């Protein structure tokens, strides 16, 4: 049996941009993506701590070291610059494997979204 578990999590990052006129996705500083083991195009659940919104989109890399977290397309309407988000990626794995799996958890600097 396969189960779905948390594979990656970026905890408490601030929205740096919202671009309604983009085709979709969330732009994430590539350093954060690497640290959280998130790949380009991977599905990301976004939890907005400021307004309770939950949505899903896919990840695209932003400039390294920039701290960029930009919601693009329709998702831009569900955030405001400065909102605090939790980004979660889930993966499917064998039940027995899941019992011992450890997700990649990232806790960036809350001031500028960079790794400390």
Automatic annotation (TrEMBL):
Pyruvic acid (Ser) modification sites are 25
What domain of life does the native source organism fall in?
Bacteria
Give an example GO molecular function: aspartate 1-decarboxylase activity
Query: What EC class does the entry list?
Result: lyase
List, alphabetically, the GO terms of the cellular component aspect: cytosol
The coenzyme or cofactor needed here is: pyruvate
Q: Which GO terms describe its biological process?
A: alanine biosynthetic process; pantothenate biosynthetic process
Give the matching Gene3D superfamilies: 2.40.40.20
Its keywords, alphabetically, are: Autocatalytic cleavage, Cytoplasm, Decarboxylase, Lyase, Pantothenate biosynthesis, Pyruvate, Schiff base, Zymogen
What is the active site of this protein? 25, 58
Pathway where this protein functions: Cofactor biosynthesis; (R)-pantothenate biosynthesis; beta-alanine from L-aspartate: step 1/1
- Name the family the entry cites: Belongs to the PanD family.
Kindly provide the name given to this protein in its UniProt entry.
Answer: Aspartate 1-decarboxylase
Query: What organism does the UniProt record list as the source?
Result: Polaribacter aquimarinus
Q: Which gene encodes it?
A: panD
């Amino acid at each position: 049996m396969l189960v779905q578990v948390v594979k990656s999590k970026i905890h408490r990052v601030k929205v740096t941009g919202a671009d309604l006129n983009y085709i979709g996705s969330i732009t994430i500083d590539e350093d954060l993506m690497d640290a959280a083991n998130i790949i380009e195009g991977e599905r990301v659940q976004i939890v907005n701590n400021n307004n309770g919104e939950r949505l899903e989109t896919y990840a695209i890399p932003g400039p390294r070291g920039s701290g960029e977290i930009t919601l693009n397309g329709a998702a831009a309407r569900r955030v405001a610059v400065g909102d605090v988000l939790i980004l979660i990626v889930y993966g499917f794995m064998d039940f027995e494997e899941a019992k011992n799996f450890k997700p990649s958890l990232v806790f960036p600097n809350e001031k500028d979204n960079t790794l400390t």
